[in-house]
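Ticket closed. Logging final result for Formate dehydrogenase gamma subunit.
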Amino acid sequence: MAAYPAWDEDGARLIIAGLSHLEGAALPILHALQDEFGYVDPKAVPLIADALNLSRADVHGTISFYHDFRTAPPPRRIVKLCRAEACQALGCETLAQDLARDHGIVVDAHARSQDAVVETVYCLGNCALGPSALVEGELIGRVDANSVAALCGARQ
Ligand code: FES
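Final structure:
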């Protein structure tokens, strides 16, 4: 996944100033901040509220209403593990159990700021070579718990 720059208040102010003239500017600003930094830092809330003449509660409400917005830095790496039917037949559920038992990596644990997370997806179009995983745009077939852990950098 793309590496994001660290949160930077001056950079955030520029983004906000560049979009604050728009009608309904809160959403475009939040998307632009997340595109830039990978998440919307809570420190952005008063900046947005001041720029748009909104209350901080209004801005908080918008962020929490849309589940797409992250308020903490994203994981360094996301490994998507297929758990659809063909990959189930080829052992992806056993893989998920082994991953938790042997490596302490729980699939779909929503700890968004860890180094890596493993997320369930349903079919990566690589059914004959399952279990399948996708990491940073690369499709990998016949994964097992050890190889998924290695893809995570073996850190959780
Ligand atoms: S079912 Fe896993 S890739 Fe299609």
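The pocket of FE2/S2 (inorganic) cluster is lined by residues 82, 84-87, 123-127, 130, 132 (CB under 6 Å). No further action required.
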